[in-house]
Design a protein that fits this description.
mainly alpha; about 95% helix; elongated
Length: about 100
């Protein structure tokens, strides 16, 4: 009878250890995703400020203070272009990684 309890106890210990390792792995993966997302947001905000400043310094003097709509259009085109280019490059890298 004691041997059955001991075997059951060992099985439970192994199961608990396996679950703890799985939790640790998932926790690390999710933390990495959150940190990466945070840095991505900070990077996007930095690019946002740079693009705004470039428009303010170079577009507004050409079109004057009434250039609000033109500035927003140029800003949207630049941001969209960057998003498409970066997404394309990352997708290309991911495909290469999948095939190797």
């Amino acid at each position: 009878m004691d041997e059955k309890k001991e075997n059951k106890s060992k099985k439970l210990s192994k199961k608990a250890l396996k679950e703890a390792r799985q939790f640790q792995k998932e926790f690390a993966e999710r933390t990495l995703k959150l940190v990466t997302s945070g840095f991505g947001l900070v990077s996007a905000l930095a690019w946002n400020e740079l693009i705004k400043e470039v428009i303010k310094e170079y577009v507004k003097p050409i079109f004057g203070e009434a250039s609000g709509l033109i500035s927003l259009f140029i800003y949207a085109v630049v941001v969209t272009g960057l998003a498409v280019l970066i997404t394309y490059q990352i997708s290309k890298i991911a495909r290469e990684k999948d095939t190797s």
